[in-house]
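ugh ok fine here u go
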Amino acid sequence: MREDYFFEGLNIDELDKNRAYLYFKTKGLEKHILIKDNLKTWGVNNIDYPMIASTYRYDKRLRYILFKYISYIEEFYRAIILDEYNDNPKLIECTEDFNKRLQKYKYRLNDTLENISYKVLLYQAKKMPHNIKKLFRFPLTKHLAKNIDALISLRNAVMHNKFLLLCRFGICYVDGIDDGKSASLKANILNLISFLPEDVGQKCKKEINEARKEGENTGTKWKLPSVVIIDLE
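structure:
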């Protein structure tokens, strides 16, 4: 049985075992097995249940934090476009996708902006003239299109509640990470931060760094394996 496989060689007391059975029903047994197996792959020895539970909780914290800042970008870009062009949307140099939506909503710009995908919004922002682009605080990189694609990939993973620590992400170009080119979660978070205004980006970085700390006691001891920690210091 898969439950037997999960518990095999796992250090766990009776209280945590009861909690584990409850979480199997809501979070899934297979997800717990994936976490355990990956901790082994990443070189964690003598795995105990609090490591698995803490890894799950940590990943969920990361998703909550990233959701907030991914949403910030969406609201920020919409606001700039709406404020600059609401009086005359026909002045916008549109991407094909944005133009289709603009026509569908009969050039009502607010309705258009609230009914486009994250991808369409970001690529429309990229197409804006230089003076408007400066308002978006786009990162200064020759790989902007690739980094936008990576940001969209991260956004989709967060919005669909994927387990981020086990996800594959798009390649992005971030100085200081894997020779400047990486598909890691850390690189993708730093890529997201590069699209935020500096003060907002610093808040995001601080929240990511603090996510590793023990929070509300759920009964199971907080024991986060160092190998999963995203350190943005």
